[in-house]
Design goal:
53 strands; 4-stranded antiparallel beta sheet; about 20% helix; 3 domains; WD40_repeat_dom_sf; alpha+beta; Methylamine Dehydrogenase, Chain H
Length: about 900
């Protein structure tokens, strides 16, 4: 029996550590007290810290304590005076590990952080990838490795300097919190053989660090209890393991012989070695007690190398416990005892080939997830958050709350036996499902039939429900057998869709269903996914591959408010699937949420929805500061943010204007309204003006190719008044050449298709003179040119959008054709305005835009010298205009 001594009044997790000089050992417990003991006299000093203390570490004259206050508390040592806290979290600190001057912190909000205590800047390094609370931390300082155990069922090894994941072992039991975990999984390093020891159920697995394969396994067949911790002695000849039933075993590292067994009423939860006396350690129990153990008598016994018989028995024992997929199994004999004759028997090329085979391991596929739901390992979490409401899951109940309370009151459902873990919410129904029991519940809370508002269905043949989604008239259930079962809201089974790979996520919009699944095994540390877009109402099926950033995962997918498909990766890249004219989906990168969050000094954004109407791109998010998921209490606040597109040099004026233009083109459902046309013209004119100011005339000409006739007139006027005469002439000449070519093509098409219509006889009034008759002929020819003028050819890609103009008609008696010819200038190409035989059209937006451009130029030309230059340019325009009028009159006479 362990000779335990009571230290804390409240039972629970108790932590213990030694000072560097070994003169004191310190304990903390669930009563919120810290006890400082002198090693020789056991004289104690009490320090009141908080309501609960979970873990502690001591460094020189400072105590670091993880409490229930969601922060890392700092106390002076040995008096315990309160000092300013170093870092705050959203959940309590669950694990601490001190190595040299580096402090490693593990929290219950899935974070692992490293702080350099000698650096006053308090810069932190993050080790990401955890999906549940952190159980334990351990550092191998020589190799610069950090090992972590997590409630998500995995043990991870990180490179401290590079902050990269080296290896992940999915070997421990999953749990949703530390209190409900079957084991504390406190791991340790065997620094003699460079192996990692992991307690797995009732055995300890040893993984060598070269290829990260399991080398040997320790198991006591007489004990079926779970192991809490493993710890190697400083002398590197023994290791200690503790079981949850209170048994403590001291075991020889080489022979796996049990040197001594101790027992106690409660499980040993923490252990610390005396840095001065290496043959002595102190442990603490779940009852708030501590005990000293001396192992000097076991160190005095000679440890002989095992005989050949023992080697054979040990090799047979370890080989039985190792999985079939492991590359090789070796016994527990020290590698230095291997003879050189055995090495010579194995060729070097075979060793290289075998090492390459070992490195080729299957890629871990991403698990299925529901968008806008928090981690399934949390005890209290969000099952769903959408525009209608939120579904929250507590330990024994589920609550459905609506954002608009006047639409429907909150609904509470008992969850003791059904264990619902998946859900979805729409305007007419609620769907809940359980992956454990295979039960699916549908509640039609807006049904007119009061007798049938709920119905359930159970899966069969070991088929597990992974995802559910609610359409307007359908329910989609995704199962583990790669099936999508479609049902009506009343429960009528309609069709069963098969997928090519395991399901990843699923979302719906109206009667459209978007499914993402694994297509094949990807490259190392990468995912290969495909999507299926199904329009149930129109019976339209579309599929394709989903591009992802290397070494990332999918964390959100869904529809925007306008029905476009978006998906978000863990790296922060937000992408969209755009419908092309060929009814295909083009993946486009939109923005990077992670970079924008770092600019605003935030941890990340929790994406809820996207609004992309009327050229706007707004995101509904929850701001996260130092956490991975939002908390249920207090209720999180939703923020609306507007992000720029992921363009290069987005801080410059050029990129910002390009971003605004792309938003107008990408995020507009209708391109026929006048507001869209005005916004597009305004943005293009700004881009044109910016290019002119920076003397990029070729770029300005390319921008003109995206303009319509109204915007082109403004561009020509701006170029003329800005002194870009060659650019204005280039735009005008190119347009005239395009008109001639298109006019000839249209004539050829008309002649080949149908004979030209007969012209009616024309009579010249006798009262008119010959000069007036010639002017009327010129004017009629000019009107014919304007009527047959084709539109500017714009690219047929995503930027070809028609325009509808609101026009104001002016009778012919107010303006004559002769006045138009006399006022025509190349700087204002009025011939591009659409005209009829007896009316002239003037666009309202053109008048307003002309006023704006003239106002801008008048504000810029304030000096007298600039005004003189403008007058000279206008005189040149008049001379050019005369030449143009002569050419037009000659062209009309020839016709």
């Amino acid at each position: 029996m362990l000779s335990v001594v009571s230290a804390h009044s409240t039972p629970g997790l108790t932590d213990i550590c030694y000072t560097k000089d070994g003169n004191h050992f310190i304990t903390c417990g669930q009563d919120g007290d810290i006890h400082v003991f002198e090693t020789k006299t056991d004289q104690v000093e009490h320090i009141r810290c908080a309501d609960q203390c979970h873990c502690l570490a001591v460094h020189e004259y400072h105590l670091f304590v993880g409490t229930n206050r969601n922060e890392l508390e700092v106390r002076s040592f040995p008096h315990g005076d309160s000092l300013p806290s170093l870092v705050h979290f959203t959940q309590p600190v669950s694990a601490l590990c001190l190595s040299s001057s580096s402090l490693f912190i593990g929290t219950r909000d899935f974070k692992v952080v490293m702080m350099n205590l000698n650096d006053d800047s308090n810069k932190m390094k993050y080790f990401d990838g955890h999906q549940a609370p952190i159980l334990a931390l351990n550092v191998y300082e020589e190799k610069r490795w950090l090992a972590t155990s997590c409630c998500d069922g995995s043990v991870r090894v990180f490179n401290i300097d590079k902050q990269t994941l080296v290896k992940q072992f999915n070997v421990i039991t999953k749990s949703n919190d530390i209190e409900t975990a079957s084991s504390l999984v406190k791991i340790d390093w065997d620094k003699t053989d460079h192996m990692l020891a992991i307690p797995v159920k009732n055995m300890v697995q040893f993984y060598e660090s070269e290829k990260w394969t399991r080398k040997k396994t320790y198991e006591n067949d007489s004990i079926d209890e779970v192991i809490n911790l493993v710890s190697f002695s400083p002398c590197r000849t023994l290791f200690i393991i503790s079981y949850v039933n209170g048994q403590l075993s001291i075991i020889n590292r080489l022979t796996f012989d049990i040197c001594m067994n101790y027992s106690s009423k409660d499980a040993v939860c923490s252990l610390a070695w005396n840095p001065i006396e290496s043959n002595r350690f102190t442990c603490s129990t779940m009852a708030g007690e501590y005990a000293h153990v001396d192992i000097s008598e076991y160190l005095a016994k000679p440890t002989s190398t095992p005989s050949d018989k023992d080697e054979a028995e040990m090799e047979e024992k370890t080989s039985d416990n190792i999985d079939d997929d492991s590359e090789s199994v070796s016994n527990d004999v020290d590698p230095t005892t291997t003879t050189t004759d055995d090495k010579e028997l194995i060729p070097k090329w075979f060793e290289r080939a075998s090492s390459m085979i070992v490195e080729t391991k299957p890629v871990e596929l991403q698990e299925s997830f529901q968008s806008t739901s928090t981690s399934k390992y949390l005890e209290s979490r969000f099952l769903l958050w959408n525009n209608i409401g939120a579904i929250t899951c507590y330990s024994e109940q589920i609550q459905i709350s609506f954002h608009d309370v006047s639409y429907h009151h909150s609904i509470t459902i008992d969850n003791k036996t059904d264990k619902y873990s998946i859900g979805d919410l729409s305007l007419s129904a609620i769907v809940l499902a359980s992956s454990q029991t295979g039960k699916c519940l549908c509640i039609l809370y807006q049904s007119w039939d009061s007798n049938m508002r709920e119905w359930t269905i159970n899966t069969e043949n070991n088929d597990k429900i992974e995802l559910v989604s609610l359409c307007e008239d359908f329910i989609a259930i995704g199962t583990s057998q790669r099936l999508i079962r479609l049902m009506s809201l009343s429960g009528i089974q309609q069709r069963i869709i098969r997928l090519q790979g395991p399901l990843v996520s699923m979302s719906s919009y109206q009667n459209q269903l978007w499914i993402i699944h694994h297509s094949t095994q990807g490259l190392p540390k990468e995912q290969a996914m495909s999507y299926v877009l199904l329009n149930i109402e129109n019976d339209h099926y579309q599929t394709g591959s989903l591009p992802l950033i290397p070494k990332t995962k999918l964390i959100w997918m869904g529809f925007s408010d306008s029905g476009k498909c978006y998906y978000l990766e863990k790296s922060g890249h937000l992408s969209m699937l755009r419908h092309t004219k060929g009814n295909e989906l083009e993946p486009l990168l939109i923005s990077n949420l992670k970079q924008e969050a770092e600019k605003n000094n935030l941890g990340s954004y929790w994406l809820l929805g996207i609004n992309d109407f009327n050229g706007k791109f707004q995101l509904r998010v929850i701001e996260l500061r130092g956490q991975s998921f939002p908390d249920l209490v207090p209720w999180p606040l939703v923020s609306i943010i507007s992000l720029p597109l992921a363009l290069y040099q987005i801080d410059t004026e050029k990129s910002q204007l390009e971003s605004d233009y792309l938003k107008i083109k990408l995020f507009n459902n209708s391109t026929d309204d006048e507001e869209f046309s005005n916004n597009e013209r305004q943005c293009l004119i700004k881009m044109f003006a910016s290019s002119c100011k920076s003397n990029r005339e070729y770029r300005a000409f390319e921008i003109c190719q995206l303009m319509d006739s109204i915007a082109l007139q403004l561009a020509v006027r701006y170029a003329t008044k800005s002194g870009k005469i060659s650019l204005a002439q280039k735009i005008t000449d190119e347009l005239i050449e395009q008109k001639k070519d298109q006019e000839q093509e249209e004539k050829l098409i008309q002649r080949s298709s149908s004979p030209p219509p007969a012209r009616p006889p024309t009579s010249i009034p006798s009262s008119k003179s010959s000069s007036s008759s010639s002017i009327s002929i010129v004017s009629s020819a000019f009107e014919e040119i304007k009527q047959t003028r084709p539109k500017v050819i714009t690219p047929t890609g995503p930027f070809s959008n028609p325009f509808r103009k609101k026009v104001i008609t002016i009778p012919e008696n107010e303006t004559s054709t002769t006045d138009e010819l006399s006022k025509w200038k190349p700087s204002v190409n009025k011939s591009r305005l659409p005209a009829s035989n007896k009316t002239t059209t003037i666009t309202t937006a053109t008048i307003q835009s002309d006023i704006n451009v003239e106002t801008i130029t008048e504000n810029e030309d304030n000096s007298l010298n600039t005004k003189r230059k403008i007058d000279e340019s206008e005189n040149n325009d008049e001379e050019i205009g005369k030449n143009k009028r002569n050419k037009l009159q000659q062209f009309a006479c020839n016709r």
